[in-house]
Amino acid sequence: MPKLRYGTENKKRPVWNMKRKRSEKVAWYGALTALAMIFSYIETLIPITVGVPGVKPGLANLVVFAALYKMSPRDAFVISMARILLAGMTFGNMASMIYSFAGGILSFLVMWFLWKKDWLEKVGVSIAGGVAHNIGQLLAAAFVVESGSVFAYLPVLLVSGTLMGALIGFLGGLLIARLPELNT
What we know:
Elements: H1 15-45, H2 61-70, H3 73-91, H4 94-117, H5 122-145, H6 154-178
Helix pairs in contact: 1-2, 1-3, 2-3, 2-4, 2-6, 3-4, 4-5, 5-6
């Protein structure tokens, strides 16, 4: 029986390789989701007081950002949603999950669109994602409290989204340059 090595000998991929490919993808999903959870936990330990509730560095978004560039948009979205759900159940509450999902979905859509169009460099995509995340959270808060007064926080959140987005984009660019292709 010929040796079956991963993707080298046969033009048609043997069943063994397809199973391996699936298991590799599951392993990457698990590892990246766990890493995002660790970053989410680290954020709970960082005391940030700028007078606006919910301002955080967004370290977990580094994982989603890298997944967008090194895996696929679908993979990055699944990792993002899994991280928000698990972190919300572990470190937050229902309100924090609602705001995180609103911000996470809008942020992902903006980053995916800009990544797809290739209009901006990585740092620009990340900044847009950070700002969109904050806008998504404000939209959810305005809906929940039934008041537009929450938009008074917009200037502070735009600045924090820009600064943290730039930091995540810079770090993400370094990380992406060193990671192998994860499109398993």
